[in-house]
């Protein structure tokens, strides 16, 4: 099986990369002392992937996140998937690098990228980024959803919402107020599409270290600790947006430490 495809019970998970970029570790993680990075990264830089995940059950095809505007559609085509095949789109959160392919084209040619999908959006992020009365209101985020609203295809979801018998929206706030993971349970096996609750594997063992993108650092650290401990306890496969592609791995206990082991 390809490193970009995993099976969890009856759910197939396909990792899709919408591009990547090199990041300065100290810039992304200003709380982490620079000497710590010297033992991990030779030049103080790491590759940040912009990952999305396709989840396929016997009855549903779901795309988690719509990327940064890179080669996502080519990635789907390489897996034999047309935009018309996507039945549901859901999000870990509404930062710009996770919503870019909601729409394609520009001007008079702009259109919904996945025309047959229902769009499941975390309510907390919708209320913060899309509600005009919110202090976090973003016209750029709202513009990515306005045509979907007009089609009546947006459904707001809360913690515990079942996308299918196998897939559930699970609140993991902190990176954004409404950040969610997509948890998968099928035939006694577990997986989690993590989104940005984790940005770099170093955070598995040191969840108190936040990135500069975390909106509520204290909550983000608490969420991370709970998440990695649960993944360890369940032996869950993880798919993480910004880990190096394909972003698959598991949290494993080594002595008193929790570490990320890529698969």
Explain the layout of strands and helices:
Layout: E1 5-8, E2 11-24, H1 25-28, H2 34-38, E3 45-56, E4 61-64, H3 72-78, E5 88-90, E6 103-104, E7 111-112, E8 118-122, H4 123-130, H5 139-150, E9 154-157, E10 167-171, E11 180-186, E12 189-195, H6 202-205, H7 217-234, E13 237-240, E14 248-254, E15 257-262
Parallel strand pairs: 4-5, 5-8, 8-9, 12-13
Antiparallel strand pairs: 1-2, 2-3, 3-4, 6-7, 10-11, 11-12, 13-14, 14-15
| Largest sheet: spatial strand order | 1-2-3-4-5-8-9
Largest sheet: 7 strands, mixed
Query: What is the general shape?
Result: globular
Can you give the helix content as a percent range? 10-25%
Rounded Rg: 18 Å
CATH superfamily: Ribonuclease Z/Hydroxyacylglutathione hydrolase-like
CATH class assignment: Alpha Beta
The count of strands amounts to: 15
CATH topology name, in short, is Metallo-beta-lactamase, Chain A
What's the end-to-end separation, in Å? 12 Å
Number of domains: 1
Low-confidence parts: none
Count, helices: 7
Order of helices and strands: EEHHEEHEEEEHHEEEEHHEEE
Q: Which secondary-structure class do the elements indicate?
A: alpha/beta
- Mean pLDDT, rounded to whole units? 94
The CATH architecture classification is 4-Layer Sandwich
Oligomeric assembly: single chain
Strand content: 25-35%
């Amino acid at each position: 099986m390809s490193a970009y495809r995993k099976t969890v019970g009856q759910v197939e998970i396909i990792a899709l990369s919408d591009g990547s970029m090199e990041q300065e570790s100290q810039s992304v993680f200003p709380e982490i002392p620079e000497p710590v990075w010297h033992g991990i990264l030779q030049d103080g830089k790491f590759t940040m992937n912009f990952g999305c995940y396709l989840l396929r059950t016997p009855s549903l095809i779901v795309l988690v996140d719509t990327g940064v505007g890179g080669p996502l559609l080519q990635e789907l085509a390489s897996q034999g998937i047309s935009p018309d095949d996507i039945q549901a789109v859901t999000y870990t959160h509404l930062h710009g690098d996770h919503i870019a392919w909601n729409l394609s084209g520009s001007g008079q040619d702009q259109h919904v990228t996945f025309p047959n999908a229902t769009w499941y959006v975390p309510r907390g992020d919708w209320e913060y980024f899309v509600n005009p009365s919110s202090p976090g209101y973003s016209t750029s985020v709202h513009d990515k959803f306005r045509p979907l609203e007009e089609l009546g295809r947006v459904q707001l979801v809360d913690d515990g919402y079942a996308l299918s018998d196998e897939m559930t929206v699970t609140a993991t706030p902190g990176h954004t107020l409404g950040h969610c993971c997509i948890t998968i349970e099928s035939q006694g096996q577990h997986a989690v599409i993590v989104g940005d609750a984790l940005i770099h594997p170093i955070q598995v063992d040191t969840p108190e270290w936040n990135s500069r993108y975390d909106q509520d650092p204290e909550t983000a650290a608490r969420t991370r600790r709970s998440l990695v401990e649960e993944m360890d306890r369940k032996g869950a496969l993880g798919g993480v947006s910004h880990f190096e592609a394909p972003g698959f791995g598991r949290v494993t206990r080594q002595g008193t430490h929790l570490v990320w082991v890529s698969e």
